[in-house]
Amino acid sequence: MEFKEAKNKFVQTWGALGSQWGINKTMAQIHALLMVSNEAVSMEDIMEELQISRGNASMNLRALMDWGIVYKEFKAGERKEFFTAEKDLDELAVKISRERSKREIKPALKILKEVSTIEAKDSAEEKHFVDQTSKLYDFVLKADNVLDKMTELNDNWLGKLFIKMMK
Amino acid sequence: MEFKEAKNKFVQTWGALGSQWGINKTMAQIHALLMVSNEAVSMEDIMEELQISRGNASMNLRALMDWGIVYKEFKAGERKEFFTAEKDLDELAVKISRERSKREIKPALKILKEVSTIEAKDSAEEKHFVDQTSKLYDFVLKADNVLDKMTELNDNWLGKLFIKMMK
DNA sequence: ACAAACTTTCAATTATTTTTGAAAGTTTAA
DNA sequence: TTAAACTTTCAAAAATAATTGAAAGTTTGT
């Protein structure tokens, strides 16, 4: 397989993976493209490589910047803007999980807390509901913290040991 | 908030969360409904509670069973089928992650391996591509194993300590 | 073997999400 | 201040995904 083919395959695959996880295909593709580029890429080039419109490129670049995983860059003497992606994968994971947590998990947790604290009366049905949603609340809260905790842990010896075991 | 309202809120929220993570809304809603039901529910009742068609209910129940997180149940003297959800949340997490890994991550890993092993020639561009996709391959492989590893770890003392720290 | 009581399938419809492209907006240099 | 070079916005169009409903399929009791 030659370079161009490999690059294209990677971008397509990353795009497909993204859309299966609720991230728009173009957004994932732009990110993929920037991840494997050794230098900043212009909007023009992104449009050209992915065969997408200017509007689409603009909106998805904005979204990627809002997620904090793509940055604008300016080149001396050039008028147009260039873009680079966060390339440190640990950093990338942390940022994505922070953002999804903030946008999706936290609001869901709020609702879970609300519904799990209703008066359960005496019916088995209602008791089961309260019990199950409480457990779910605890579980989601715990899961939501895992990545953050792992980053913290990374600084201490037990963390390092654990990380080693994961490899 | 009274029970019925809480239940509905929960089902809606779980459905919305599902669709943000690439799981069809109805599928997540049916799962939510079954999770908080203390007894098995018929297709008829699911249709009624979620206001969906028979075809939709049937297809999504099949999908949930394929994922291994919903089971058919038969009641003596009843002709129709009833459904229950996996209620143990650790078990649920393991099954979902196994399934998504099998369907989505593993195929992506295969491609990542392919594209990261091309001949890099001498250009900086190609070297960077190989380097970055290799790192990504390792990272995804590692992340893909985390949940499995955690379940294994759960059985030993270090694991228990670690799990405690997560809480 | 028949028919009642169910479930599944899938082509057509509907809903949702994404993408386009052209107009409006912004910045820079002269 | 003007105009060229560039970016953003957003209503309309296109693409994709989910849903319906009725026909076909299955199972069970008589």
TrEMBL record, chains A, B:
<comment type="similarity">
    <text>Belongs to the GbsR family.</text>
</comment>
<keyword id="KW-0238">DNA-binding</keyword>
<dbReference type="InterPro" id="IPR026282">
    <property type="entry name" value="MJ1563"/>
</dbReference>
<dbReference type="Pfam" id="PF12802">
    <property type="entry name" value="MarR_2"/>
</dbReference>
<keyword id="KW-0805">Transcription regulation</keyword>
<keyword id="KW-0804">Transcription</keyword>
<dbReference type="InterPro" id="IPR036388">
    <property type="entry name" value="WH-like_DNA-bd_sf"/>
</dbReference>
<dbReference type="InterPro" id="IPR052362">
    <property type="entry name" value="HTH-GbsR_regulator"/>
</dbReference>
<dbReference type="InterPro" id="IPR000835">
    <property type="entry name" value="HTH_MarR-typ"/>
</dbReference>
<feature type="domain" description="HTH marR-type">
    <location>
        <begin position="26"/>
        <end position="76"/>
    </location>
</feature>
<protein>
    <recommendedName>
        <fullName>HTH-type transcriptional regulator</fullName>
    </recommendedName>
</protein>
<dbReference type="InterPro" id="IPR036390">
    <property type="entry name" value="WH_DNA-bd_sf"/>
</dbReference>
<dbReference type="InterPro" id="IPR011991">
    <property type="entry name" value="ArsR-like_HTH"/>
</dbReference>
